[in-house]
Design brief:
The complex is a heterodimer. By secondary structure, chain A is an alpha+beta fold. Chain A is 54% helix and 15% strand. Chain B is globular and about 80 Å long. Classes of the chains: A alpha+beta, B alpha+beta. Chains A and B meet through β7, β9, α8, α9 and α10 of A and α9, α10, β9 and α12 of B.
Chain lengths: 354, 403
């Protein structure tokens, strides 16, 4: 665990207490069964606690606590699979912080910070993340193109859209059509079709803006995945300590002890990579590389741990009644987000010049 | 052992192929071509269409759904070569075997080995005709990997057994007519107190409660037995012989499950071709994702090695007579490969490999998602991979327990 300052520790403890007591996995189960994208009251509570404004400057209604702070909160939410637009909205806000004009900041950031407006990124156009390639285009301030599998789309009022010549803001409304896409994780995804939708360019960030947004998307998603890794690991360890077969608790079998020891090492390395990514975002140093590392590590660790979690629970892990399967389903969706490991390793090699 | 086919034997086989072709032309309804529901073994069989029924009845009467089983109990009485020819001829016209399930995969071979003549004549023909659905009552809440810890009691009441207890994870329990069950006839000895009993699922006192799985299906149940009267004739083998019989049945189960089952068949499209479609090729004509390309190649090479091993094991076990402990290796390797394949499909298809329902996905993609999740069970049921490892270490390699 990274060394935290008092402020971060307080924030982390608050997030931990809140998810544990107010928003455990059972809360997500209810949301899923009701067919809702998320629990609006819970989102209200998160906003009230100031989480939507953590990376937004104070002058625009945020607290400017930084990425490490936001990552700590997101990790806790990942543990209980809390459904919320927090990540999507924070990423949209970060795009404006990085690339918005003064008017754009004044127009959107306070509402994003209060949680009243939900934002999300609409970058990818196919089922696999393809980096910064986009064919959506803008003519006379109007954007046309289709974005695939946009996260947390159904309640979003603001889309941050990657077009062929830069990043644009498009409000939900004229020229924007959503078609929902039900994925195995049962979260809120949609294909978003823009047809001559009014769009304003984020011009201040320059050419590197899209990459910077993508870096943040990778790190923050990795933080959610880290929380999921931790939760599956903890649950599985508890289960092995309690389940008796052959007159012994399963945790007394060396074959399983070594498996858990391996998973624990994977988890710890992932924690370092994710915290390293968050620190890089706060310091602005070697961000892109740190982000690739964080996401690729989180992909691989969660892939393994979510699979092992089900396996080590035996038959009960296959039941919908038990929570561990939820993590498996969410894991593959997040793996696909913002770059699968093969994509990221290819980028990493390219960046290193081999 | 490869031998040059004798001219006469070859002529026989050709004549057999003729017979198969004529049978198929007459009996296989062309509208069923390629319509095999590959998830049918894990789902409720839907309403049988007249064509499906006709096809099942025709195959059942011929005994060709269980081609190598003895004719006198309703099997096809075919040689391995003829059975293979039958399969090939069916594949050519898009036909498939409509007769399957646990009766065919597990119970039939076990009855052939252990049951009395009366029991064989009673139970095997309906299996060959696909008229009876069987389920497997082995697992209990506290008897999973430690199967011998089962507690369901069958008390001897003179002319019948009185069965009380609970089973769990009973696949297809809600659709089954009968259950082959491991029960306890004595508390005195963990293993020797176990007996193998056939129980009517429609008997008073049998109750099932379906359980929903992570794949969204509900193909398995908790099964409760409360004062169920089971006739004495339903005991297979001797009292106390259940562990031996039950273990043998598990070897058949493993051999059958090792192919990754529905999973592998469902995704029978070559991965390279699928990847070409979703990922595209680079300017050198290679898959645009270099790492995935290597992973797919790695998978296919290991898959081929697995198939060769399965074939070798089959030839060897035929020479030695019956299934063997190598079934543990096949189950462990085959199920792992099946799961890897499903994970690779998701890696290739991205979000479209994770569709749950509704718009935006092809049916094949949606089926793939469910099969991926259901497939996670293959390394758990029929003796988990960890238990197969224990069997390999102890029974094949002679390694000792740590206690
Ligand atoms: C989809 C599905 C269908 C099934 N269908 C049937 C059915 O029709 N009939 C039926 O009777 N049963 C059925 N089963 C039950 C299945 O056989 C059991 O789930 C299986 O034997 C494992 O038992 P368990 O679930 O109690 O897991 P546990 O025995 O509790 O095992 C939990 C984990 O610990 C591991 N483990 C246990 N002991 C050891 C050890 N000594 N060394 C190392 N690792 C160990 C296991 O491998 C597993 O990973 C089904 C299960 C599933 C998932």
């Amino acid at each position: 665990m990274a060394v935290l300052n008092d402020e971060q520790e307080m924030l982390r403890d608050m997030a931990r207490e809140w998810t544990k007591n107010e928003h455990p996995v059972g809360a997500w189960r209810k949301v899923r069964d009701a067919g809702e994208p998320f629990d609006a009251d819970a989102w209200g509570a998160m906003a009230e606690m100031g989480w939507a404004g953590i990376i937004i400057p104070e002058e625009h209604g945020g607290s400017d606590f930084g990425w490490m702070s936001l990552g700590l909160v997101v990790e806790e939410l990942g543990k209980s699979l809390a459904a919320s637009p927090l990540i999507a909205s924070a990423l949209a806000a970060s795009a404006i912080v990085l690339g918005g004009s003064d008017e754009q900041k004044a127009q959107y950031l306070p509402r994003l910070a209060s949680g009243e407006l939900i934002g999300t990124l609409a970058f990818d156009e196919g089922p696999r993340h393809a980096g910064l390639k986009a064919s959506a285009s803008v003519h006379d301030g109007r954007l046309t193109g289709t974005k695939a599998f946009v996260h947390e789309a159904s309640r979003a009022g603001l889309f941050v859209v990657l077009a062929s010549d830069g990043v644009y803001l498009v409000e939900q409304g004229q020229g924007v059509t959503l078609s929902s896409r039900a994925l195995a994780d049962m979260r809120d995804h949609a294909e978003v079709d823009f047809n001559n939708a009014p769009a304003q360019k984020l011009a201040a960030g320059g050419d590197a803006l899209a990459q910077k947004i993508l870096d943040r998307a990778r790190v923050l998603t990795a933080a959610e995945m880290l929380g999921m890794c931790q939760a599956v690991f903890d649950t599985t360890l508890d289960y092995l300590k309690q389940r008796v077969q052959f007159n012994q608790v399963l945790s007394s079998f060396q074959a399983l002890q070594h498996r858990m020891a391996d998973l624990y090492s994977e988890l710890e390395m992932t924690r370092s990579a994710v915290e390293g990514g968050l620190q890089a975002l706060d310091s602005g140093f070697a961000v892109t590389e740190a982000a690739m590392l964080a996401k690729a590590r989180a992909n691989d660790a969660l892939h393994l741990i979510s699979k092992e979690g089900v396996q080590l629970h035996g038959g009960i892990g296959m039941t919908d009644e038990y929570d561990v399967g939820f993590y498996l389903k969410r894991a593959r969706v997040l793996e696909a987000a913002w770059g699968a490991s093969s994509h990221l390793r290819d980028l990493f090699a390219t960046a290193k010049g081999y | 052992m490869a031998s040059v086919a004798e001219p006469e034997a070859k002529a026989d086989l050709d004549a057999f192929r003729e017979e198969v072709r004529a049978f198929l032309a007459e009996n296989f309804p062309p509208e069923l071509r390629g319509k095999n529901n590959l998830l049918s073994s894990v789902e409720e069989a839907g309403e049988e269409s007249p064509a499906e029924k006709a096809w099942r009845v025709a195959m059942g009467e011929k005994g060709w759904g269980t081609p190598t089983w003895p004719k006198e109990y309703g099997g096809g009485g075919l040689t391995k070569k003829q059975a293979r020819a039958l399969e090939e001829e069916m594949a050519k016209v898009g036909a498939w075997n409509p007769i399957g399930g646990m009766g065919v995969m597990m119970l039939g071979p076990t009855l052939l080995e252990f049951a009395s003549e009366e029991q064989k004549h009673e139970h095997i023909p309906p299996i060959c005709k696909g008229e009876i659905r069987w389920c497997q009552g082995y697992s209990e809440p506290n008897a999973g990997s430690d199967l011998a810890n089962l507690q369901t009691m069958a008390e001897d009441k003179g002319d019948h057994y009185l069965v009380n207890g609970q089973k769990t994870w009973t696949s297809g329990g809600q659709w089954a007519d009968k259950c082959f069950c491991l029960v306890r006839t004595s508390r005195a000895d963990k293993h020797k107190g176990i007996s193998f009993l056939l129980i009517d699922m429609h008997a008073p006192g049998v109750e099932v409660k379906p359980i929903k799985m992570i794949s969204g299906m509900s193909p398995f149940c908790e099964t409760f037995f409360t004062d169920v009267q089971v006739p004495k004739e339903s005991l297979v083998g001797e009292e106390g012989q259940g562990w031996t019989i039950g273990k043998k049945l598990l070897q058949h189960e493993r051999t059958n499950l090792s192919g990754g089952g529905a999973l592998a068949a469902l995704n029978s499209q070559p991965l390279g071709k699928v990847a070409e479609r979703y990922i595209g090729l680079d300017e050198n004509g290679k898959l645009a994702d270099a790492e995935l390309r290597v992973k797919i190649a790695d998978f296919e090479m290991r898959w081929n090695a697995f198939l060769l091993t399965a074939r070798r094991a089959m030839e060897e076990s035929k020479a030695q007579g019956g299934v063997s402990e190598i079934s543990s290796i096949l189950k462990k390797a085959g199920t792992k490969l099946g799961q890897e394949r499903a994970e690779l499909m998701i890696a290739i298809q991205g979000y479209r490999g994770l569709g749950w329902e509704g718009e935006g996905f092809e049916q094949k993609e949606l089926d793939g998602t469910r099969a991926w999740l259901f497939g996670k069970a293959t390394t758990i049921y029929g003796g988990s991979t960890e238990i197969q490892n224990n069997i390999i270490a102890k029974r094949i390699l002679g390694m000792l327990d740590h206690q």
